[in-house]
Design a protein that fits this description.
Blueprint: H1 5-56, E1 64-68, H2 75-82, H3 95-102, E2 108-116, E3 120-127, E4 130-135, E5 139-143, E6 148-151, E7 162-164, H4 168-173, H5 175-194, E8 202-207, E9 213-219, E10 222-229, H6 233-249, E11 254-258, E12 269-272
Parallel strand pairs: 1-3, 4-7, 7-8, 10-11
Antiparallel strand pairs: 2-3, 4-5, 5-6, 8-9, 9-10, 11-12
């Protein structure tokens, strides 16, 4: 089969039209790309100019640092540690470095800093919560998660039970084991309070070698020694409350109560205080 000359001309015109359409499409795509690049470049330039202005403008000068969550740490000390300066440009301030510097304060467990434009930094502080003091050749503060986080000083103003019975050398040699004992002592304090006994009366908890505890607590104006030993502390504290109540009804007070009788755990012994 053969094509007529007219038909061949039509085919050639159609092919040429397709070529022109392809070129128009490519040219249009090129124009769009160039236009997008121009717009992007313009926006980048404008953004850079805005950034240059903002980082040099007094409009974004740091005017105040607001601290929240402080109980023991001092705001002035934390601000000094942060390295932030009133009047510096807030957009250029390194808040991550400032937060790390604040966390170097022994009272601070964590710090989170946020910018509040135009000129404020909000510092959210989480402090260690002191639960007891630990005698280790010097008094150290133990938080409620069982971490020793600082040496105690008079300015701390802490009135907390003192955990004794651990030497500094023993702490160095057996820290993992003794850390568990400190956790157990904190649990004892929680159980003491949950049993209806006043936590404020506890002055000392001695950690005994066998794993038990002896508590020294105020009762009737004098310190009472309560030997708990190991085992079911909750049950022993219930018996302690019952024994104190029975003695009070008789007008007596025990100087020492021994609740550690492995052979007869249901029994307790008391050494009565002299009546004066």
């Amino acid at each position: 089969m053969t094509f007529k000359a007219l038909q061949m001309a039509q085919v050639r015109r159609a092919a040429a039209e397709l070529d022109r359409a392809a070129w128009r499409s490519m040219f249009g795509a090129l124009l769009r790309t160039v236009a997008a690049a121009a717009v992007s470049g313009a926006l980048s330039f404008v953004g850079w100019q805005v950034w240059q202005w903002a980082t040099a403008s007094d409009a974004f000068a740091l005017r105040t640092v607001h601290f929240s969550g402080l109980v023991h740490a001092r705001e002035a000390d934390l601000f000094h540690r942060s390295g932030l300066r009133i009047g510096e440009n807030l957009l250029l301030a390194d808040l991550s470095r400032a937060a790390r510097a604040i966390q170097a304060d022994p009272w601070v467990a964590s710090a989170r800093l946020e910018r509040r434009l135009p000129g404020e930094v909000v510092a959210s502080i989480a402090e260690h919560r002191p639960a007891a003091l630990v005698e280790l050749g010097g008094l150290y503060v133990l938080d409620d998660e069982g971490r020793l986080f600082k040496r105690a000083v008079a300015d701390d103003g802490l009135d907390l039970p003192i955990l004794t019975g651990i030497s500094r050398q023993a702490w160095v040699d057996r820290k993992p084991d003794l850390q568990l004992r400190l956790f157990a002592a904190l649990h004892l304090l929680d159980t003491w309070q949950a049993s209806g006994l006043s936590l404020g009366t506890v002055s000392e908890i001695r950690l005994e070698d066998g794993g038990g505890f002896t508590v020294f607590a105020h009762d009737g104006g004098a310190v009472q020694e309560v030997r708990l030993g190991a085992g079911d502390v909750s049950l022993k504290l219930q018996r302690l409350a019952q024994m104190r109540a029975a003695l009070a009804r008789r007008g007596e007070r025990a100087e020492r109560i021994d609740l550690d009788n492995p052979a007869r755990p249901d029994q307790a012994a008391a050494t009565l205080a002299d009546k004066r």
